[in-house]
Amino acid sequence: TGQPPAGPGGVAAGSAAAISYLQAAEHAAAVTLLRQLAAVSPSLAQLMASVAASEATHVTALAAAGGAGHA
User: Fold this and answer.
1) What is the DSSP string of 1-54?
2) Does pLDDT of 1 surpass 50?
3) pLDDT tens, 21-71?
4) The pLDDT of residue 3 is above 50
5) Within a 13 Å sphere around the CA of 37, how many CA atoms are in the beta-carbon half?
6) DSSP 3-state assignment of 65?
7) 3-state secondary structure of 59
8) pLDDT for the residue numbered 15
9) Is residue 58 exposed (0-12), middle (13-18) or buried (19+ Cβ within 10 Å)?
């Protein structure tokens, strides 16, 4: 099929595929947190925004490591 076989947990084997998978997961986590900000207390929103910023930084770092998407 042109794709490397899946490794543990269903993630495609190979570093580029794994990095792309992680990028997508980090991006999704950041987006999910940001969408929830309006429904929580200000102190929790601040914490969640900080975590989302960290997730977004991971996306950028993974792109530098050889990922292909979401940067």
Assistant:
1) --SPPB-GGGPBSSHHHHHHHHHHHHHHHHHHHHHTGGGS-HHHHHHHHHHHHH
2) no
3) 899 999 999 999 999 999 999 999 999 999 999 999 999 999 888 766 665
4) yes
5) 15
6) coil
7) helix
8) 84
9) middle
According to the model, what pLDDT value does residue 37 have?
A: 95
**Residue 6: both structure tokens together:** 């899946």
Instruction: Tokens for 36, please give them.
Output: 């929830």
CA-angle at 71, arms to 54 and 61, nearest 5°: 50
What token pair was written down for 27? 């991006």
**Counting beta carbons within 10 angstroms of the beta carbon of residue 61, is it exposed (0 to 12), middle (13 to 18) or buried (19 or more)?**
middle
Q: Please report, for residues 3, 10, 56, the alpha-carbon distance to residue 31 in angstroms, rounded to integers and kept in the order given.
A: 28, 23, 9
